[in-house]
Amino acid sequence: MKFIKHFAWILLLFPSIACAEIIGSVSTVFKLLGANDKIVIEAFDDPKVEGVSCHLSRAKKGGIKGTIGLAEDPSNSSIACRQVGPIKYGDNLKDGEEVFTKSTSILFKTLHVVRFFDRKRHVLIYLVYSDKLVEGSPKNSISTVPIMPWRK
């Protein structure tokens, strides 16, 4: 019982980060042993902005190392975010706030999605990047969601 209480407190200390739902995948490279290399499509909802969903595509290594979770996934990823309902958010949106994260290697590499709010243009901007540097710059992609009235 003490463990559950401590675990609950730990969860409250960390900011809410979205969990992804796997939508599907396609194989890109056949591997004789273990899973094939593939591109995975995942979906998640912004935990602080109701009415916005994002779809993320990312490369995933296969083979024996990939199957047991020891392979380092490539840094290639893309994101598309859309308004899927009336957008509601509080005053607590911070630029650069992390809304999604996924480990892409056993130790040193993580995929991040952060949100910015362009108040002048009334647009939410979602940036996906990997924190491992590739040729001096992290690979990245953005998607924008203009906040529009929602018709019922």
Annotation keywords:
152 residues; mainly beta; 4-stranded antiparallel sheet; 2 helices; elongated; disordered N terminus
Biggest pleated-sheet summary: 4 strands, antiparallel
Order of secondary-structure elements: HEEEHEEEEE
Helix segment tally: 2
How much of the sequence lies in strands comes to: over 45%
The low-pLDDT segments are: 3-15
Mean pLDDT: 82
Q: Estimate percent helicity.
A: 10-25%
Terminus-to-terminus distance: 46 Å
Tell how many strands the DSSP assignment holds. 8
General description of the model:
The protein has 152 residues and is mainly beta. It has one domain (18-146). The chain is 12% helix and 49% strand. It is built from two helices and eight strands; from the N terminus they run H-E-E-E-H-E-E-E-E-E. A hairpin with a 3-residue loop joins strand 2 (37-45) and strand 3 (49-60). The chain is elongated and about 50 Å long. Mean pLDDT is 82; it is low at 3-15.
